[in-house]
Amino acid sequence: MGKCKKEHLLGKLDLLVLRILSGGDTLHGYAIAERIERLSENVFQVGEGTLYPALHRMDEAGWIHSQWAPSDNNRRARYYRITAKGRRQLEEEREGWAKAAAAMDRVMRLA
Amino acid sequence: MAWYRRLWNVLRPGPLERDLDDELLFHREMRRRSLVELDPANAEAEAASRMGNLLAAKDGMRDARGVPWLASAIQDLRHGFVVLGRDAAISALVILVLALGIGGNSAIFTLMKSVFLDPLPYAGHERIVILYDRFNGPGVDQTGPTIPEFVDVRDRAHSFERLAFLDHRDFQLTGTDEPVRVFAARVTASFFPVLGVSAAIGRTFLPEENFGRGRVVVVSDSFWRTRMGGDSRAIGRVLQLNGDPCEIVGVLPPGFSFDYPTLGVPEPAEIYVPFEMTDAYMLRSSPYGNIRRVLALGRLRAGHSPGQATAELANIADQLASEHAALYRGPNNERLGFEMGAMPLREVIVGGHRKLLWLLAASVGVLLLIACANTAQLLLARSLKRAREVAIRTALGASRTRLTQQVLLEGLALAACGGSAGLALAGTLAHLLPGCYPCGIPCSRWRVWI
Fold first, then answer.
1. Do A59 and B1 touch (CB under 8 A)?
2. What are A27-36's pLDDT values in tens digits?
3. What architecture does CATH give domain A2-110?
4. d(Cα B212, Cα B166) in Å, to the nearest integer?
Protein backbone atom coordinates (compact mmCIF):
# COMPACT_ATOMS: atom_id res chain seq x y z
CA MET A 1 0.00 0.00 0.00
CA GLY A 2 2.67 2.46 1.08
CA LYS A 3 4.95 1.44 -1.75
CA CYS A 4 2.25 2.01 -4.30
CA LYS A 5 1.65 5.51 -3.00
CA LYS A 6 5.34 6.32 -3.11
CA GLU A 7 5.66 5.26 -6.74
CA HIS A 8 2.60 7.26 -7.57
CA LEU A 9 4.16 10.41 -6.14
CA LEU A 10 7.56 9.72 -7.72
CA GLY A 11 6.00 9.63 -11.15
CA LYS A 12 4.37 12.98 -10.56
CA LEU A 13 7.63 14.42 -9.25
CA ASP A 14 9.27 13.73 -12.62
CA LEU A 15 6.46 15.62 -14.29
CA LEU A 16 6.79 18.56 -11.91
CA VAL A 17 10.58 18.79 -12.36
CA LEU A 18 10.35 18.59 -16.15
CA ARG A 19 7.65 21.25 -16.14
CA ILE A 20 9.76 23.58 -13.97
CA LEU A 21 12.79 23.13 -16.22
CA SER A 22 10.80 23.37 -19.45
CA GLY A 23 10.91 27.14 -19.19
CA GLY A 24 14.54 26.85 -20.31
CA ASP A 25 16.09 27.86 -16.99
CA THR A 26 19.23 26.14 -15.69
CA LEU A 27 18.56 25.46 -12.00
CA HIS A 28 20.16 23.66 -9.09
CA GLY A 29 18.25 21.14 -6.98
CA TYR A 30 17.43 23.56 -4.20
CA ALA A 31 15.93 26.07 -6.62
CA ILE A 32 13.82 23.37 -8.25
CA ALA A 33 12.48 22.26 -4.86
CA GLU A 34 11.78 25.83 -3.90
CA ARG A 35 9.88 26.57 -7.10
CA ILE A 36 7.75 23.45 -6.78
CA GLU A 37 6.90 24.40 -3.21
CA ARG A 38 6.14 28.01 -4.13
CA LEU A 39 4.09 27.26 -7.24
CA SER A 40 2.06 24.60 -5.41
CA GLU A 41 1.59 27.09 -2.59
CA ASN A 42 3.36 24.71 -0.23
CA VAL A 43 1.00 21.83 -0.95
CA PHE A 44 3.96 19.82 -2.28
CA GLN A 45 6.83 19.60 0.15
CA VAL A 46 9.74 18.21 -1.83
CA GLY A 47 12.23 16.45 0.40
CA GLU A 48 15.81 15.98 -0.77
CA GLY A 49 15.41 12.23 -0.15
CA THR A 50 13.08 12.02 -3.13
CA LEU A 51 14.16 14.99 -5.23
CA TYR A 52 17.84 14.14 -5.71
CA PRO A 53 17.45 10.47 -6.58
CA ALA A 54 14.80 11.53 -9.09
CA LEU A 55 17.08 14.19 -10.60
CA HIS A 56 19.92 11.70 -10.98
CA ARG A 57 17.62 9.08 -12.42
CA MET A 58 16.32 11.54 -15.00
CA ASP A 59 19.87 12.61 -15.79
CA GLU A 60 20.80 8.97 -16.42
CA ALA A 61 17.70 8.60 -18.60
CA GLY A 62 18.82 11.61 -20.63
CA TRP A 63 15.75 13.76 -19.94
CA ILE A 64 17.79 16.42 -18.21
CA HIS A 65 21.42 17.42 -18.40
CA SER A 66 23.56 18.38 -15.40
CA GLN A 67 26.63 20.53 -15.08
CA TRP A 68 28.76 21.76 -12.18
CA ALA A 69 29.11 25.51 -11.81
CA PRO A 70 30.14 27.91 -9.04
CA SER A 71 27.25 29.27 -7.01
CA ASP A 72 26.72 32.45 -5.02
CA ASN A 73 27.52 30.85 -1.64
CA ASN A 74 31.13 29.81 -2.33
CA ARG A 75 30.22 26.20 -3.01
CA ARG A 76 30.07 24.53 -6.40
CA ALA A 77 26.55 23.47 -7.31
CA ARG A 78 25.08 21.12 -9.84
CA TYR A 79 22.79 22.83 -12.30
CA TYR A 80 20.16 21.02 -14.34
CA ARG A 81 18.51 21.89 -17.65
CA ILE A 82 15.99 20.05 -19.79
CA THR A 83 16.98 18.18 -22.98
CA ALA A 84 15.00 17.58 -26.18
CA LYS A 85 14.32 14.06 -25.00
CA GLY A 86 13.08 15.49 -21.71
CA ARG A 87 10.64 17.75 -23.54
CA ARG A 88 9.16 14.80 -25.41
CA GLN A 89 8.85 12.95 -22.09
CA LEU A 90 7.16 15.97 -20.56
CA GLU A 91 4.55 16.06 -23.34
CA GLU A 92 3.82 12.39 -22.85
CA GLU A 93 3.51 12.61 -19.09
CA ARG A 94 1.52 15.77 -19.27
CA GLU A 95 -1.05 14.10 -21.55
CA GLY A 96 -1.21 11.06 -19.29
CA TRP A 97 -1.73 13.27 -16.28
CA ALA A 98 -4.40 15.36 -17.99
CA LYS A 99 -6.36 12.26 -18.88
CA ALA A 100 -6.04 10.81 -15.40
CA ALA A 101 -6.99 14.08 -13.75
CA ALA A 102 -10.01 14.56 -16.00
CA ALA A 103 -11.16 11.01 -15.35
CA MET A 104 -10.70 11.47 -11.60
CA ASP A 105 -12.66 14.70 -11.78
CA ARG A 106 -15.55 13.11 -13.67
CA VAL A 107 -15.83 10.28 -11.18
CA MET A 108 -15.71 12.66 -8.22
CA ARG A 109 -18.46 14.85 -9.67
CA LEU A 110 -20.68 11.83 -10.16
CA ALA A 111 -20.34 10.90 -6.51
CA MET B 1 25.14 8.10 -19.48
CA ALA B 2 26.78 4.96 -20.77
CA TRP B 3 26.73 1.73 -18.81
CA TYR B 4 30.50 1.64 -18.38
CA ARG B 5 30.33 4.96 -16.61
CA ARG B 6 27.88 3.45 -14.14
CA LEU B 7 30.06 0.39 -13.74
CA TRP B 8 33.03 2.65 -13.07
CA ASN B 9 30.99 4.47 -10.41
CA VAL B 10 30.51 1.14 -8.61
CA LEU B 11 34.12 0.05 -8.85
CA ARG B 12 35.69 3.44 -8.10
CA PRO B 13 33.09 5.18 -5.95
CA GLY B 14 35.38 7.99 -4.69
CA PRO B 15 34.66 10.79 -7.18
CA LEU B 16 30.95 10.00 -7.29
CA GLU B 17 30.70 10.14 -3.49
CA ARG B 18 32.42 13.53 -3.46
CA ASP B 19 29.98 14.86 -6.07
CA LEU B 20 26.97 13.61 -4.15
CA ASP B 21 28.29 15.07 -0.88
CA ASP B 22 28.95 18.43 -2.50
CA GLU B 23 25.51 18.60 -4.04
CA LEU B 24 23.74 17.71 -0.80
CA LEU B 25 25.89 20.02 1.33
CA PHE B 26 25.04 22.82 -1.04
CA HIS B 27 21.37 22.00 -0.61
CA ARG B 28 21.70 21.92 3.16
CA GLU B 29 23.55 25.20 3.19
CA MET B 30 20.86 26.87 1.10
CA ARG B 31 18.14 25.56 3.33
CA ARG B 32 19.95 26.71 6.44
CA ARG B 33 20.24 30.18 4.99
CA SER B 34 16.57 30.39 4.16
CA LEU B 35 15.68 29.19 7.64
CA VAL B 36 17.97 31.74 9.29
CA GLU B 37 15.89 34.45 7.68
CA LEU B 38 12.73 33.03 9.22
CA ASP B 39 13.89 31.77 12.60
CA PRO B 40 17.56 32.31 13.43
CA ALA B 41 17.38 30.50 16.75
CA ASN B 42 16.33 27.08 15.48
CA ALA B 43 17.82 27.22 11.98
CA GLU B 44 20.85 25.05 12.69
CA ALA B 45 18.83 22.40 14.54
CA GLU B 46 16.20 22.31 11.84
CA ALA B 47 18.77 21.88 9.09
CA ALA B 48 20.61 19.17 11.06
CA SER B 49 17.40 17.27 11.71
CA ARG B 50 17.08 16.79 8.01
CA MET B 51 20.42 14.99 7.91
CA GLY B 52 18.70 11.58 7.83
CA ASN B 53 16.88 12.74 4.80
CA LEU B 54 20.21 13.56 3.20
CA LEU B 55 21.52 10.05 3.80
CA ALA B 56 18.44 8.54 2.17
CA ALA B 57 18.92 10.95 -0.72
CA LYS B 58 22.49 9.85 -1.14
CA ASP B 59 21.50 6.18 -1.24
CA GLY B 60 18.95 6.92 -3.92
CA MET B 61 21.41 8.98 -5.97
CA ARG B 62 24.06 6.31 -5.71
CA ASP B 63 21.58 3.73 -6.97
CA ALA B 64 20.66 5.98 -9.90
CA ARG B 65 24.29 6.55 -10.85
CA GLY B 66 25.60 3.04 -10.31
CA VAL B 67 24.52 -0.55 -10.79
CA PRO B 68 22.66 -1.26 -7.52
CA TRP B 69 22.71 -5.08 -7.71
CA LEU B 70 26.41 -5.09 -8.45
CA ALA B 71 27.17 -2.69 -5.62
CA SER B 72 25.26 -4.84 -3.13
CA ALA B 73 26.84 -7.99 -4.54
CA ILE B 74 30.32 -6.56 -4.00
CA GLN B 75 29.35 -5.60 -0.48
CA ASP B 76 27.97 -9.08 0.22
CA LEU B 77 31.02 -10.75 -1.28
CA ARG B 78 33.28 -8.68 0.92
CA HIS B 79 31.16 -9.61 3.92
CA GLY B 80 31.27 -13.23 2.76
CA PHE B 81 35.05 -13.30 2.94
CA VAL B 82 34.94 -11.75 6.41
CA VAL B 83 32.58 -14.53 7.52
CA LEU B 84 34.89 -17.12 5.95
CA GLY B 85 37.73 -15.80 8.04
CA ARG B 86 35.63 -15.77 11.21
CA ASP B 87 34.76 -19.47 10.94
CA ALA B 88 38.18 -20.42 9.67
CA ALA B 89 37.92 -24.06 10.75
CA ILE B 90 34.63 -24.76 9.01
CA SER B 91 35.72 -22.79 5.95
CA ALA B 92 38.97 -24.71 5.70
CA LEU B 93 37.09 -27.98 6.01
CA VAL B 94 34.60 -27.04 3.28
CA ILE B 95 37.40 -25.86 0.99
CA LEU B 96 39.33 -29.07 1.58
CA VAL B 97 36.31 -31.25 0.88
CA LEU B 98 35.46 -29.31 -2.27
CA ALA B 99 39.08 -29.32 -3.40
CA LEU B 100 39.26 -33.10 -3.11
CA GLY B 101 35.99 -33.60 -4.97
CA ILE B 102 36.71 -31.13 -7.72
CA GLY B 103 40.38 -32.04 -7.99
CA GLY B 104 39.64 -35.74 -8.36
CA ASN B 105 37.04 -35.11 -11.02
CA SER B 106 39.20 -32.72 -13.01
CA ALA B 107 42.12 -35.14 -12.92
CA ILE B 108 40.05 -38.09 -14.08
CA PHE B 109 38.35 -35.99 -16.70
CA THR B 110 41.75 -34.87 -17.94
CA LEU B 111 42.69 -38.50 -18.24
CA MET B 112 39.46 -39.42 -20.03
CA LYS B 113 39.74 -36.49 -22.38
CA SER B 114 43.25 -37.38 -23.46
CA VAL B 115 42.23 -41.01 -23.96
CA PHE B 116 38.86 -40.60 -25.65
CA LEU B 117 38.72 -37.10 -27.10
CA ASP B 118 42.17 -35.75 -27.90
CA PRO B 119 43.32 -36.49 -31.42
CA LEU B 120 46.03 -39.13 -31.71
CA PRO B 121 49.32 -37.61 -32.81
CA TYR B 122 49.01 -38.74 -36.43
CA ALA B 123 47.70 -36.73 -39.36
CA GLY B 124 44.19 -37.92 -40.24
CA HIS B 125 44.30 -40.36 -37.32
CA GLU B 126 40.61 -41.26 -37.61
CA ARG B 127 41.33 -43.03 -40.91
CA ILE B 128 44.04 -45.28 -39.48
CA VAL B 129 42.90 -48.83 -38.71
CA ILE B 130 44.54 -51.95 -37.33
CA LEU B 131 44.03 -55.22 -39.27
CA TYR B 132 43.32 -58.37 -37.34
CA ASP B 133 42.77 -62.10 -37.80
CA ARG B 134 40.16 -63.97 -35.81
CA PHE B 135 39.65 -67.70 -35.41
CA ASN B 136 36.20 -68.34 -33.98
CA GLY B 137 36.78 -72.08 -33.75
CA PRO B 138 39.62 -72.19 -31.23
CA GLY B 139 38.48 -68.86 -29.79
CA VAL B 140 41.43 -66.70 -30.83
CA ASP B 141 39.86 -63.29 -30.63
CA GLN B 142 42.38 -61.03 -32.28
CA THR B 143 45.85 -61.54 -33.61
CA GLY B 144 47.93 -59.95 -36.31
CA PRO B 145 47.81 -61.34 -39.84
CA THR B 146 50.64 -63.38 -41.34
CA ILE B 147 52.74 -61.73 -44.01
CA PRO B 148 51.28 -63.79 -46.90
CA GLU B 149 47.80 -62.76 -45.72
CA PHE B 150 48.93 -59.14 -45.57
CA VAL B 151 50.25 -59.34 -49.13
CA ASP B 152 46.97 -60.83 -50.36
CA VAL B 153 44.96 -58.10 -48.63
CA ARG B 154 47.22 -55.45 -50.14
CA ASP B 155 46.62 -56.91 -53.59
CA ARG B 156 42.86 -57.40 -53.32
CA ALA B 157 41.36 -54.79 -50.95
CA HIS B 158 40.10 -51.44 -52.27
CA SER B 159 39.19 -49.78 -48.97
CA PHE B 160 42.73 -48.74 -48.17
CA GLU B 161 44.86 -45.95 -49.45
CA ARG B 162 47.95 -47.67 -48.05
CA LEU B 163 48.79 -50.64 -45.88
CA ALA B 164 51.81 -51.29 -43.71
CA PHE B 165 53.06 -53.72 -41.12
CA LEU B 166 55.79 -53.89 -38.54
CA ASP B 167 57.26 -56.15 -35.91
CA HIS B 168 59.89 -55.60 -33.24
CA ARG B 169 63.35 -56.98 -32.62
CA ASP B 170 66.32 -56.41 -30.37
CA PHE B 171 69.54 -55.36 -32.09
CA GLN B 172 73.11 -55.25 -30.86
CA LEU B 173 74.60 -51.87 -31.45
CA THR B 174 78.39 -52.19 -31.67
CA GLY B 175 81.19 -49.92 -32.76
CA THR B 176 80.94 -47.75 -29.67
CA ASP B 177 82.73 -48.44 -26.38
CA GLU B 178 80.73 -51.52 -25.56
CA PRO B 179 77.83 -53.26 -27.27
CA VAL B 180 74.37 -52.05 -26.26
CA ARG B 181 70.95 -53.47 -26.86
CA VAL B 182 68.60 -51.27 -28.85
CA PHE B 183 64.93 -52.01 -29.38
CA ALA B 184 63.98 -51.69 -33.03
CA ALA B 185 60.84 -51.75 -35.13
CA ARG B 186 61.11 -53.47 -38.49
CA VAL B 187 58.68 -51.69 -40.76
CA THR B 188 57.53 -51.59 -44.36
CA ALA B 189 58.38 -48.44 -46.29
CA SER B 190 54.67 -47.58 -46.21
CA PHE B 191 54.61 -47.46 -42.38
CA PHE B 192 55.50 -43.78 -42.07
CA PRO B 193 53.14 -42.58 -44.85
CA VAL B 194 50.28 -44.58 -43.30
CA LEU B 195 50.80 -42.69 -40.04
CA GLY B 196 51.24 -39.44 -41.96
CA VAL B 197 54.72 -38.85 -40.58
CA SER B 198 57.81 -37.72 -42.44
CA ALA B 199 61.37 -37.47 -41.21
CA ALA B 200 62.53 -34.34 -39.37
CA ILE B 201 65.96 -34.71 -40.98
CA GLY B 202 66.68 -36.80 -44.06
CA ARG B 203 64.03 -39.23 -45.30
CA THR B 204 62.14 -42.36 -44.34
CA PHE B 205 62.39 -45.65 -46.25
CA LEU B 206 62.05 -46.35 -49.97
CA PRO B 207 59.97 -49.38 -51.09
CA GLU B 208 63.00 -51.14 -52.56
CA GLU B 209 64.74 -51.01 -49.19
CA ASN B 210 62.27 -53.66 -48.00
CA PHE B 211 63.89 -55.99 -50.54
CA GLY B 212 67.39 -55.87 -49.17
CA ARG B 213 68.83 -53.10 -51.34
CA GLY B 214 71.20 -51.20 -49.12
CA ARG B 215 71.19 -51.45 -45.36
CA VAL B 216 69.60 -48.32 -43.90
CA VAL B 217 68.18 -47.18 -40.57
CA VAL B 218 65.91 -44.35 -39.39
CA VAL B 219 66.45 -43.26 -35.81
CA SER B 220 64.00 -41.77 -33.33
CA ASP B 221 64.45 -38.29 -31.99
CA SER B 222 65.39 -39.59 -28.53
CA PHE B 223 68.01 -41.98 -29.97
CA TRP B 224 69.44 -39.11 -32.01
CA ARG B 225 69.61 -36.86 -28.94
CA THR B 226 70.85 -39.32 -26.31
CA ARG B 227 73.13 -41.58 -28.30
CA MET B 228 74.32 -39.22 -31.01
CA GLY B 229 74.29 -35.95 -29.11
CA GLY B 230 71.91 -34.39 -31.60
CA ASP B 231 74.59 -34.47 -34.28
CA SER B 232 73.42 -32.27 -37.16
CA ARG B 233 75.45 -34.37 -39.63
CA ALA B 234 73.86 -37.63 -38.49
CA ILE B 235 72.60 -38.45 -41.98
CA GLY B 236 75.07 -40.75 -43.68
CA ARG B 237 76.70 -41.94 -40.49
CA VAL B 238 76.90 -45.70 -40.11
CA LEU B 239 75.61 -47.75 -37.17
CA GLN B 240 76.84 -51.32 -36.62
CA LEU B 241 73.65 -53.29 -36.01
CA ASN B 242 74.15 -56.99 -35.28
CA GLY B 243 77.52 -56.54 -36.94
CA ASP B 244 76.12 -55.11 -40.18
CA PRO B 245 76.88 -51.53 -41.17
CA CYS B 246 73.65 -49.57 -41.60
CA GLU B 247 73.54 -46.06 -42.93
CA ILE B 248 71.37 -43.52 -41.12
CA VAL B 249 69.00 -41.98 -43.69
CA GLY B 250 66.61 -40.12 -41.43
CA VAL B 251 65.78 -38.78 -37.99
CA LEU B 252 62.12 -38.80 -36.90
CA PRO B 253 60.38 -35.74 -35.49
CA PRO B 254 60.35 -35.32 -31.69
CA GLY B 255 57.35 -36.93 -29.99
CA PHE B 256 56.75 -39.50 -32.71
CA SER B 257 56.16 -42.99 -31.43
CA PHE B 258 53.92 -45.96 -32.15
CA ASP B 259 54.64 -47.81 -28.95
CA TYR B 260 51.28 -48.47 -27.34
CA PRO B 261 51.37 -51.33 -24.83
CA THR B 262 47.85 -52.28 -25.94
CA LEU B 263 49.28 -52.95 -29.40
CA GLY B 264 51.71 -55.43 -27.87
CA VAL B 265 54.74 -53.16 -28.06
CA PRO B 266 56.63 -53.76 -24.79
CA GLU B 267 58.91 -50.69 -24.90
CA PRO B 268 59.58 -47.66 -27.07
CA ALA B 269 61.34 -48.41 -30.34
CA GLU B 270 64.59 -46.47 -30.61
CA ILE B 271 65.36 -47.18 -34.22
CA TYR B 272 63.45 -48.30 -37.31
CA VAL B 273 64.84 -50.62 -39.94
CA PRO B 274 63.20 -51.87 -43.15
CA PHE B 275 61.52 -55.24 -42.83
CA GLU B 276 63.35 -57.62 -45.10
CA MET B 277 60.77 -59.20 -47.39
CA THR B 278 62.50 -62.53 -47.88
CA ASP B 279 60.82 -65.62 -49.26
CA ALA B 280 61.07 -67.19 -45.83
CA TYR B 281 58.40 -64.78 -44.64
CA MET B 282 56.51 -64.02 -47.82
CA LEU B 283 55.63 -67.50 -49.11
CA ARG B 284 53.04 -69.79 -47.59
CA SER B 285 55.24 -72.72 -48.52
CA SER B 286 58.16 -71.49 -46.42
CA PRO B 287 58.67 -72.51 -42.80
CA TYR B 288 57.90 -69.09 -41.24
CA GLY B 289 55.33 -67.82 -43.73
CA ASN B 290 52.29 -69.05 -41.81
CA ILE B 291 53.67 -68.60 -38.32
CA ARG B 292 55.15 -65.14 -38.13
CA ARG B 293 52.40 -62.68 -37.29
CA VAL B 294 52.85 -58.93 -37.59
CA LEU B 295 51.15 -55.74 -36.50
CA ALA B 296 49.36 -54.57 -39.64
CA LEU B 297 47.80 -51.18 -40.11
CA GLY B 298 46.21 -49.29 -42.95
CA ARG B 299 44.98 -45.86 -43.92
CA LEU B 300 41.40 -45.95 -45.20
CA ARG B 301 40.53 -44.22 -48.42
CA ALA B 302 38.57 -41.00 -47.84
CA GLY B 303 34.89 -41.87 -47.40
CA HIS B 304 35.47 -45.49 -46.44
CA SER B 305 34.43 -46.55 -42.95
CA PRO B 306 36.10 -49.22 -40.79
CA GLY B 307 32.84 -51.18 -41.15
CA GLN B 308 33.15 -51.24 -44.95
CA ALA B 309 36.80 -52.27 -44.65
CA THR B 310 35.84 -55.08 -42.26
CA ALA B 311 33.20 -56.34 -44.70
CA GLU B 312 35.73 -56.35 -47.50
CA LEU B 313 38.33 -58.09 -45.34
CA ALA B 314 35.81 -60.74 -44.27
CA ASN B 315 35.21 -61.42 -47.93
CA ILE B 316 38.94 -61.77 -48.61
CA ALA B 317 39.29 -64.04 -45.58
CA ASP B 318 36.63 -66.36 -47.04
CA GLN B 319 38.52 -66.44 -50.34
CA LEU B 320 41.79 -67.24 -48.57
CA ALA B 321 40.16 -69.97 -46.48
CA SER B 322 38.89 -71.72 -49.60
CA GLU B 323 42.07 -71.12 -51.66
CA HIS B 324 44.34 -72.49 -48.95
CA ALA B 325 41.90 -74.86 -47.31
CA ALA B 326 44.64 -76.89 -45.65
CA LEU B 327 46.00 -73.91 -43.74
CA TYR B 328 42.67 -72.81 -42.33
CA ARG B 329 41.49 -76.21 -41.11
CA GLY B 330 42.26 -77.83 -37.78
CA PRO B 331 43.99 -81.19 -37.24
CA ASN B 332 40.68 -83.04 -37.73
CA ASN B 333 39.85 -81.06 -40.85
CA GLU B 334 37.36 -78.91 -38.94
CA ARG B 335 36.79 -75.28 -39.91
CA LEU B 336 38.59 -72.75 -37.72
CA GLY B 337 36.12 -69.94 -38.36
CA PHE B 338 38.75 -67.68 -39.91
CA GLU B 339 37.84 -64.00 -40.26
CA MET B 340 39.69 -60.77 -40.91
CA GLY B 341 38.68 -57.25 -40.01
CA ALA B 342 39.78 -53.68 -39.35
CA MET B 343 39.40 -51.70 -36.15
CA PRO B 344 39.94 -47.96 -35.66
CA LEU B 345 43.34 -47.28 -34.12
CA ARG B 346 41.85 -45.55 -31.10
CA GLU B 347 39.57 -48.50 -30.39
CA VAL B 348 42.56 -50.81 -30.29
CA ILE B 349 44.68 -48.48 -28.21
CA VAL B 350 41.97 -47.70 -25.63
CA GLY B 351 40.52 -51.18 -25.80
CA GLY B 352 40.18 -52.72 -22.38
CA HIS B 353 40.92 -49.45 -20.57
CA ARG B 354 37.47 -48.15 -21.39
CA LYS B 355 35.68 -49.90 -18.54
CA LEU B 356 38.36 -49.03 -16.01
CA LEU B 357 38.25 -45.36 -16.96
CA TRP B 358 34.47 -45.20 -16.70
CA LEU B 359 34.68 -46.90 -13.34
CA LEU B 360 37.19 -44.30 -12.18
CA ALA B 361 34.99 -41.50 -13.51
CA ALA B 362 31.94 -42.88 -11.74
CA SER B 363 33.79 -43.24 -8.46
CA VAL B 364 35.13 -39.69 -8.47
CA GLY B 365 31.62 -38.55 -9.44
CA VAL B 366 30.29 -40.19 -6.30
CA LEU B 367 33.15 -38.59 -4.37
CA LEU B 368 32.01 -35.19 -5.62
CA LEU B 369 28.43 -35.93 -4.56
CA ILE B 370 29.67 -36.83 -1.09
CA ALA B 371 31.70 -33.63 -1.02
CA CYS B 372 28.56 -31.65 -1.93
CA ALA B 373 26.54 -33.34 0.79
CA ASN B 374 29.26 -32.68 3.35
CA THR B 375 29.51 -29.05 2.33
CA ALA B 376 25.77 -28.59 2.56
CA GLN B 377 25.80 -30.11 6.02
CA LEU B 378 28.62 -27.88 7.26
CA LEU B 379 26.97 -24.76 5.86
CA LEU B 380 23.68 -25.75 7.45
CA ALA B 381 25.40 -26.14 10.79
CA ARG B 382 26.97 -22.73 10.41
CA SER B 383 23.72 -21.08 9.41
CA LEU B 384 22.14 -22.27 12.67
CA LYS B 385 24.85 -20.39 14.51
CA ARG B 386 24.01 -17.29 12.51
CA ALA B 387 20.30 -17.15 13.26
CA ARG B 388 20.97 -14.07 15.41
CA GLU B 389 22.71 -12.19 12.65
CA VAL B 390 19.88 -12.93 10.25
CA ALA B 391 17.32 -11.79 12.81
CA ILE B 392 19.14 -8.47 13.24
CA ARG B 393 19.39 -7.95 9.51
CA THR B 394 15.71 -8.69 9.05
CA ALA B 395 14.83 -6.29 11.83
CA LEU B 396 16.93 -3.61 10.11
CA GLY B 397 14.88 -4.07 6.96
CA ALA B 398 16.90 -6.48 4.84
CA SER B 399 14.59 -8.01 2.27
CA ARG B 400 14.29 -11.73 1.67
CA THR B 401 16.04 -11.37 -1.72
CA ARG B 402 18.88 -9.48 -0.14
CA LEU B 403 19.39 -12.14 2.53
CA THR B 404 19.27 -14.90 -0.08
CA GLN B 405 21.74 -13.01 -2.24
CA GLN B 406 24.09 -12.66 0.69
CA VAL B 407 23.99 -16.36 1.52
CA LEU B 408 24.47 -17.31 -2.13
CA LEU B 409 27.45 -14.98 -2.51
CA GLU B 410 29.06 -16.38 0.63
CA GLY B 411 28.60 -19.81 -0.90
CA LEU B 412 30.14 -18.50 -4.11
CA ALA B 413 33.18 -17.20 -2.25
CA LEU B 414 33.62 -20.61 -0.62
CA ALA B 415 33.10 -22.46 -3.89
CA ALA B 416 35.61 -20.21 -5.67
CA CYS B 417 38.24 -21.00 -3.03
CA GLY B 418 37.42 -24.71 -3.13
CA GLY B 419 37.40 -24.71 -6.92
CA SER B 420 40.78 -23.06 -7.31
CA ALA B 421 42.30 -25.35 -4.68
CA GLY B 422 40.72 -28.27 -6.57
CA LEU B 423 42.23 -27.20 -9.87
CA ALA B 424 45.65 -26.83 -8.31
CA LEU B 425 45.23 -30.33 -6.93
CA ALA B 426 44.07 -31.60 -10.32
CA GLY B 427 47.24 -30.24 -11.91
CA THR B 428 49.36 -32.34 -9.56
CA LEU B 429 47.13 -35.42 -9.76
CA ALA B 430 47.01 -35.34 -13.55
CA HIS B 431 50.78 -35.63 -13.63
CA LEU B 432 50.87 -38.40 -11.02
CA LEU B 433 48.06 -40.49 -12.49
CA PRO B 434 49.80 -41.94 -15.56
CA GLY B 435 52.48 -43.35 -13.24
CA CYS B 436 49.89 -45.15 -11.10
CA TYR B 437 48.01 -46.45 -14.10
CA PRO B 438 48.50 -50.23 -14.37
CA CYS B 439 49.58 -50.75 -17.98
CA GLY B 440 50.70 -47.51 -19.49
CA ILE B 441 48.33 -44.88 -20.66
CA PRO B 442 47.50 -44.56 -24.32
CA CYS B 443 47.94 -40.86 -24.70
CA SER B 444 50.71 -38.51 -25.59
CA ARG B 445 49.76 -35.18 -24.15
CA TRP B 446 48.97 -34.08 -20.62
CA ARG B 447 47.16 -30.89 -19.90
CA VAL B 448 44.69 -30.15 -17.13
CA TRP B 449 41.27 -29.71 -18.59
CA ILE B 450 39.18 -27.11 -16.83
1. yes
2. 988 899 889 8
3. Orthogonal Bundle (1.10)
4. 16
